[in-house]
Amino acid sequence: MRLAPLLLAALLAATGLAHADGPILIKFSHVVAPDTPKGRAAEKFKELAEKLTAGKVKVQVYPNSQLYKDREELEALQINAVQMLAPSLSKFGPLGLRQFELFDLPYIFPSDKVLYRVMDGEIGQRLFKQLEPRGMVGLAYWDNGFKHFSANKPLRKPDDFKGVKMRVQSSKVLEAQMRALGAQPQVMAFSEVHSALQQGVVDGTENPESNFYSQRMYEVQTHLTLSQHGYLGYAVVVNKRFWDGLPGEIRQQLGEAMRETTVFERQLADQENRKALEAIRAAKTTEIYLLPTADREVLRKRMLPVHTQFMDVIGRDLVLGTYKIAREVAANP
Q: Membrane-spanning residues where (predicted)?
């Protein structure tokens, strides 16, 4: 989005730069529905932030791309038109932060336990350090669960993907993943996916259950394969100049609000994905197929070369470090 100079000036003037005369305003924008894990966590953060700061901070939440779409929101954050986002981890690659594409590699996280050790440990903090030169500070990693393939035909074996137009986020890794299966990747903003599926612009996509349900994709997709082939998570980020300009006590209180919210969000993501799957079943418009272990292994092997293709782009140490954590968890479950 190209912001006119006068509009930009007005937006900047309306932010926390003038908080001495009233509550500090945090505009928190995101692209998903309010009843998703991210949407509900944004509201939880608003509640906790305003409570813990005794009203010194006011959080305004804008869901469903009300302010900015996928391609616009990070630019808006960098110019302080909004102060906080929770973009999917795939969105950092197009900014040149290719290390974040670690999270896009197919089948790299065999379990939640491995995933959280990567996010909450040294690797996750190293990735957050990469954000600061781009004018952002990473506050937390939020979860939305593992992704599954959907289309208007069964997607169970590699041959089923041949020629299928699959929507992906803007990520070279995700594009390569689809090509490895013989599909045709189509980069598209999340807000446009339902209509694109309805109109046949794309044939299928990949999502956790909660996104599939909350965006009503079950109305326009006849088959859902529970493949758990990839991961969809978010990084909660804040404008660095805005964050650094806050009083230390406020930063501490907001940090505590974010820690509490993150615990809430991760538990909610698991619960909501389970509930969404049952709701999809109840709708009876989509055939749900649980991919057997043997068939999942066939898909994994077909997509495994993507790891090698991007290892040096992402960072060999990051990829191998994730492998090491997976081995450690397997040895001590």
A: none
